[in-house]
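Minutes, project check-in
Item: structure for the 126-residue chain
Input as provided by the requester:
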Amino acid sequence: MTDVHYLSWEPTPEGAPRRSFSLGVELTVLAGPPVTVTRISQPYAGLSVKSTPMAPFRTTAGSSRKIIVTMHVTQCRKVPWNAGLPFLDVTLRNTRAIEVHSFILGQRYAQQLSESLQVACSNNSE
């Protein structure tokens, strides 16, 4: 069993494109075999995602791993200015299966994501 929860805003890595921002999440493997994260994504067409550590990476049962998710706004008109219940898609693989899980990370994540999108697109030249 695997869980992901939101931690906080994080500094955006040096060299990230303009209109990028970073958020921290924690992946916890509660039980079972080790889990490999093969992909992290989100549903908005105008937003790309990179993670640190970069996928694929592995986490064993009974442990947690902090992941910095850096989002880059590629098209402001294709992202929501007020993300109500945004989710993060995480593709997980273990010895038995590969599955995509959608994690709703809560109200604080939704609020900080919306604020970050508004700041990123406030001087939009699209």
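Outcome recorded: The radius of gyration is 15 Å.
No further action items on this chain.
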